[in-house]
């Protein structure tokens, strides 16, 4: 048995273990936390797409939310216009975003560092304009209403499933697929050649790795993952410009940074932090007499502080992967 | 008056302000190797300070000067507290590309904090902001000319700032030192230039330039914690179009953006403005990655 | 494969840490309420609301919740509704639908609200309306004029409006133009500036329904939220087109920027501002802090035409305005800026008043079903500060279908044109416009609604 297969198997076992664990855990949760956990899984996929991009190319995108939007719109327009099932929606979302990523990657392959960050930010900002231009298909600024629907009869006959629980049950296999795929990818030959390009472009070129093509492929893969997350995220109720604003991209980035860029486990931890931060704040200030004005701005204030603290104290984030993987 | 000419003038007046904001980005990029996404957040903050002074009865000019000074102080504080420690960490960071993006992330964190603080201090209320000179368009008999004294003031101020900066960077010892520190820190250090001090100075000058842009743009819109987000995007595009390391390029980029947006709004559709900005950004990066006036050297990051 | 080894370890640590963190984050399960209905106890009714309290869309609207809470506090000081105190839980969604979904989940699952009330915003509310309705949670007095929420009660049986729809209002405004500015319309001298979202488009649709179609040269738009770039080019184009009357379908800040810019350009058409953008406080705050004197700002507002279903907040003799103003002064605990009396505070007070009335009407055995049944059956009999009757029925959940047209006087008070207030009524579809004879019932001495 070669190494590749071993890793493959190991990752499968790990993903399944996590899946079974979260599945069982969800039964002990109240609907609120089931919904929160479902949200963690959805955003986790978005953060994973950033992990792939950053871990494999060292690039930062501030427009990952816009890529999620592409996936969301692809699946939602299919579901609302053609009555497709959400599972077909996921497949279409991945394909559509991969194609979009190919175009974007071809254009962005020459762009790097802060340039890419700024350019992707402009993409995220231009999204509402696109939605308005193609209003008949994309629903303009009010968007397209979609949701997770209800569980099929064979499940609901067996057991009563709440709406939040059903969200979680749909999100779980999708997120695990993304997790399994990503962890294999990062450990695969291809993944290693990407990291070689990241660490030393000239060296990689000398050892025969096609640098430009590799960069484009990283974009395609990262986009496809983001699209999957975006389709899932849209099913929470709506696909529209205000569901995928610039701040969503920044949330994903924050999660990735807090956990540790390039680290898969870090991506999960970072996502947990950003999703549960408002609850933690509510809990922390519940007994205190602070003005509404202050508490309203507390989440964004704390996000900024956490972000700064992370990169100043340990730029590699909670999981510290960046440092160790240095060659 | 011809529609085309009045569109051009409106665009130029806005473009001059975009140019200032872009100039601020370029100065920090050249001087400290950072694209500062917090710049217009800093400008928003100092414009609020000026607005408070004016609302409490102080003169415009006092508020103007206080805003510029607090802008440069804010820039210095950001460098000393955040960017300098980060620059020291950079060397230990895993990859070069990642190292170049870490300050970008820091600047986003700063932006979030500044916007939250402005919301907490000033209730996130919407305000206007005054002009030092009449902003009513000149009358020409029964009709109006398509510009105001304030438009002329803006263009004049931008020209003066540009001349001062050119003089500063080419004729003064400190300015030359800053350029040397930016171009080759090691050599500069060996020849006795305090490189980190030069960086802090870039942050200060850029902070003042951003503040000035904030003071000049808010009269034609409104002031709220998020108002200037769009200006940052435009300034960034302008800087990239002109060449991130070229001050003159930033000015040209700003004018291109200002006039371009006015033309698209008048002759196309305002809905296409953001798509046009995106298109311009891609086109420049594909055709002339270093911008119109950008240097030939390989880009940092 | 050493590298992989350490990665795996961290991977496992990560998952364990994550699981622990998520377990820790679980809120302790709340005690099951004594009564069978969620959010209702013998002593309390919990209501939820989502609105932008921070961010670009928050100015103005962030005052609505404070005013509502002030009215509820007043009701509570008088013993509450059927002995129950009203508690309002408010969540900030920054006007981002992704966040609205999360905050709604918090309100529904964690705060266990009995009903949603007064939620602000079309783009945000649309993301949760289906879920709220599926759960049968009453969704009362939604602050959005988007007709899609209300005209098909089979689709959204629990959602009820707090405003007139954009279409109704613009149909009535178009009718006003046809009657009073026929020459200008015929000569193509009427223009429009609107924001390209559901609101702006509904305004255009309402005018079109009445046969008022704006020539392309007289039509200017801007992307909602982009007024930060200024609106000079748009206003200049209207000036060039030679229009003498401009309809503005934009939020209050953009309206203020438009009229302020026009003044600078020496462009002084007649303005017709839809009620969304017609907020004298915002207008004067923005223009006055632009360095114009308060007098100059008031001057620019003078003569501006607008429509309303309610009295103008500046009408000091209106009994509802007097009563609500008093309650606002005594009970509003919001930040200093959020207490300043204006349209938004009046609207919040009015929703507080209507909510109290609806809760009274639903009776002592308060249930979600009972509340919705009351709203559909008898909601139209409720009165409020509004000069228009409510339209709730099993056929529609629209609120106010009557508007009067006025112009701002020198004191920034919207006054009926011609001196007498004429209420016009229509629907969000193709119905005709008729004159309403509705007389608003008087407010009780204790400023509490009287139901049944």
From TrEMBL, chain A:
Gene Ontology CC entries for this record: plasma membrane
Location of this chain's protein in the cell: Cell membrane
Membrane topology: Multi-pass membrane protein
Keywords assigned by UniProt, alphabetized: Cell membrane, Membrane, Transmembrane, Transmembrane helix
Pfam families for the chain: BPD_transp_2
A GO term for molecular function: branched-chain amino acid transmembrane transporter activity
Bilayer-spanning residue ranges: 12-29, 35-53, 60-80, 86-108, 115-134, 166-187, 216-235, 255-277, 297-317
Protein's name in the database: Unannotated protein
Species for this entry: freshwater metagenome
Lineage of origin: unclassified sequences, metagenomes, ecological metagenomes
TrEMBL record, chain B:
GO biological process terms on file: amino acid transport
Predominant localisation class: membrane
Membrane topology field: Multi-pass membrane protein
CDD domains assigned: TM_PBP1_LivH_like
PANTHER family linked: ABC TRANSPORTER PERMEASE PROTEIN, BRANCHED-CHAIN AMINO ACID TRANSPORT SYSTEM PERMEASE PROTEIN LIVH
Family under the similarity heading: Belongs to the binding-protein-dependent transport system permease family. LivHM subfamily.
Source organism (scientific name): freshwater metagenome
Stretches that traverse the bilayer: 12-32, 60-82, 102-124, 144-169, 200-217, 223-241, 248-267, 273-293
Name used for this protein in its record: Unannotated protein
Entry keyword set: Amino-acid transport, Cell membrane, Membrane, Transmembrane, Transmembrane helix, Transport
GO cellular component, one term: plasma membrane
GO function term, MF aspect, one: transmembrane transporter activity
Compartments in which it is found: Cell membrane
Keyword Lyase: no
UniProtKB/TrEMBL annotation, chain C:
SUPFAM superfamilies, per the entry: Periplasmic binding protein-like I
Keyword list, A-Z: Signal
Domain Leucine-binding protein intervals: 45-409
Classification via Gene3D superfamilies: 3.40.50.2300
InterPro entries in UniProt: Leu-bd, Peripla_BP_I
The name this protein goes by in its record: Unannotated protein
Species for this entry: freshwater metagenome
């Amino acid at each position: 048995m070669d190494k590749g297969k071993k890793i493959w198997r190991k990752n499968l076992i790990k993903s399944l273990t996590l899946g079974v664990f979260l599945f069982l855990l969800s039964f002990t949760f109240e609907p609120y936390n089931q919904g929160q956990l479902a949200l963690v899984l959805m955003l986790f996929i978005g953060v994973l797409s950033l992990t792939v991009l950053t871990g494999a190319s060292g690039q930062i995108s501030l427009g990952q939310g816009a890529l999620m939007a592409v996936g969301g719109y692809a699946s939602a327009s299919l579901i609302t216009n053609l009555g497709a099932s959400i599972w077909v929606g996921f497949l279409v979302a991945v394909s559509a975003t991969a194609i979009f990523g190919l175009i974007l990657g071809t254009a962005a392959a020459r762009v790097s560092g802060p340039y890419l960050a700024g350019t992707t930010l402009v993409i995220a900002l231009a999204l509402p304009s696109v939605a308005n231009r193609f209003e008949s298909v994309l629903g303009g600024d009010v968007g397209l209403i979609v949701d997770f629907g209800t569980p099929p009869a064979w499940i609901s006959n067996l057991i009563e499933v709440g709406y939040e629980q059903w969200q979680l049950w749909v999100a779980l296999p999708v997120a695990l697929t993304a997790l399994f795929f990503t962890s294999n990818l990062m450990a695969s030959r291809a993944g290693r050649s990407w990291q070689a390009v990241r660490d030393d472009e000239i060296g990689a070129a000398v050892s025969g790795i096609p640098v430009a093509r590799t960069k484009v492929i990283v974009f395609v893969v990262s986009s496809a993952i983001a699209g999957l997350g975006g389709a899932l995220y849209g099913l929470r109720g709506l696909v529209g410009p205000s569901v995928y604003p610039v701040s969503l991209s920044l949330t994903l980035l924050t999660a990735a940074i807090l956990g540790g860029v390039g680290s898969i486990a870090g991506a999960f931890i970072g996502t947990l932090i950003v999703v549960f931060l408002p609850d933690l704040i509510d809990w922390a200030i519940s007994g205190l007499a602070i003005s509404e004005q202050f508490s309203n701005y507390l989440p964004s204030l704390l996000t900024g502080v956490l972000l700064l603290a992370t990169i100043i104290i340990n730029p590699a984030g909670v999981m510290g992967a960046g440092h160790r993987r240095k060659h | 008056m011809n529609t085309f000419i009045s569109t051009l003038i409106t665009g130029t007046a806005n473009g001059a302000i975009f140019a200032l904001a872009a100039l601020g980005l370029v100065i920090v990029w050249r001087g400290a190797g950072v694209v500062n996404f917090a710049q217009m957040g800093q400008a928003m903050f100092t414009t609020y300070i000026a607005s408070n002074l004016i609302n409490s009865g102080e003169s415009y000019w006092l508020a103007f000067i206080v805003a510029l000074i607090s802008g440069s102080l804010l820039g210095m504080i950001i460098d000393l507290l955040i960017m300098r420690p980060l620059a020291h960490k950079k060397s230990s960071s895993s990859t070069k590309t990642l190292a170049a993006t870490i300050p970008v992330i820091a600047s986003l964190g700063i932006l979030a904090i500044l916007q939250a603080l402005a919301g907490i201090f000033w209730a996130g209320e919407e305000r206007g902001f005054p002009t030092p000179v009449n902003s009513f368009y000149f009358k020409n008999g029964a009709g109006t000319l398509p510009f105001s004294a304030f438009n002329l003031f803006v263009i004049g101020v931008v020209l003066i700032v540009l001349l001062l900066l050119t003089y500063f960077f080419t004729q003064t010892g400190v300015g030359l030192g800053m350029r040397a520190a930016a171009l080759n820190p090691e050599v500069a250090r060996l020849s006795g230039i305090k490189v980190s001090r030069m960086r802090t100075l870039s942050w200060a000058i850029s902070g003042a330039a951003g503040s000035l842009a904030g003071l000049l743009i808010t009269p034609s819109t409104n002031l709220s914690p998020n108002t200037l987000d769009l200006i940052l995007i435009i300034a960034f595009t302008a800087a990239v179009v002109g060449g991130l390391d070229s001050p003159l390029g930033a000015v040209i980029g700003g004018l291109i953006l200002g006039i371009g947006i006015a033309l698209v709004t008048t002759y196309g559709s305002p809905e296409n403005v953001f798509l046009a900005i995106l298109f311009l950004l891609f086109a420049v990066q594909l055709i002339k990655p270093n911008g119109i006036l950008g240097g030939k050297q390989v880009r940092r990051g | 494969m050493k590298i992989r080894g350490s990665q795996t370890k961290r991977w496992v640590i990560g998952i364990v840490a994550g699981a622990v963190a998520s377990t820790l984050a679980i809120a302790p399960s709340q005690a099951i309420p004594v009564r069978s209905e969620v959010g209702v106890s013998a002593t309390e009714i919990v209501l939820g609301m989502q609105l932008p309290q921070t961010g670009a869309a928050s100015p103005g609207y962030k005052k609505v919740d404070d005013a509502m809470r002030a009215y509820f506090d007043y009701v509570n000081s008088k013993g509450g509704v059927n002995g129950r105190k009203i508690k309002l839980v408010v969540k900030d969604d920054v006007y981002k639908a992704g966040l609205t979904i999360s905050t709604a989940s918090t309100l529904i699952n964690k705060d266990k609200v009995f009903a949603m009330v007064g939620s602000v915003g079309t783009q945000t509310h649309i993301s949760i309306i289906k879920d709220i309705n599926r759960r049968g949670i009453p969704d009362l007095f939604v602050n959005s004029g988007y007709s899609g929420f209300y005209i098909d009660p089979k689709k959204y049986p629990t959602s009820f409006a707090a405003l007139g729809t954009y279409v109704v209002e613009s149909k009535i405004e178009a009718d006003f133009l046809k009657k009073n500015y026929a020459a200008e319309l015929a000569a193509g001298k009427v223009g429009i500036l609107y924001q390209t979202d559901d609101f702006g488009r509904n305004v255009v649709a309402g005018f079109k329904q009445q046969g008022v179609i704006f020539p392309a040269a007289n039509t200017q738009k801007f992307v909602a939220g982009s007024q930060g770039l200024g609106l000079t080019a748009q206003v200049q184009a209207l000036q060039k087109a030679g229009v003498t009357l401009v309809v503005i379908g934009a939020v209050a800040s953009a309206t203020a920027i438009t009229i302020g810019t026009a003044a600078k350009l020496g462009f002084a058409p007649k303005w017709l501002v839809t009620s969304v953008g017609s907020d004298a406080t915002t207008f004067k705050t923005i223009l006055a802090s632009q360095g114009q004197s308060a007098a100059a700002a008031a001057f620019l507002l003078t003569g501006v035409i607008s429509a309303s279903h309610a009295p103008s907040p500046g009408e000091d003799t209106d009994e509802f305005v007097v009563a609500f103003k008093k309650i606002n002064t005594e009970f509003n605990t919001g930040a200093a800026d959020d207490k300043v009396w204006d349209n938004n505070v009046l609207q919040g007070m009015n929703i507080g008043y209507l909510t109290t009335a609806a809760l009274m009407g639903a009776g002592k055995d308060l249930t979600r079903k009972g509340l919705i049944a009351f709203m559909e059956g008898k909601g139209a009999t409720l009165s409020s500060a509004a000069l228009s009757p409510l339209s709730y029925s099993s056929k529609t959940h629209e609120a106010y279908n009557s508007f009067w047209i006025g112009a701002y006087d020198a004191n920034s008070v919207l006054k009926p044109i011609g001196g007498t207030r004429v209420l016009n009524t229509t629907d969000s579809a193709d119905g005709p416009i008729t004159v309403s004879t509705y007389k608003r019932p008087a407010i009780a001495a204790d400023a509490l609604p009287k139901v049944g």
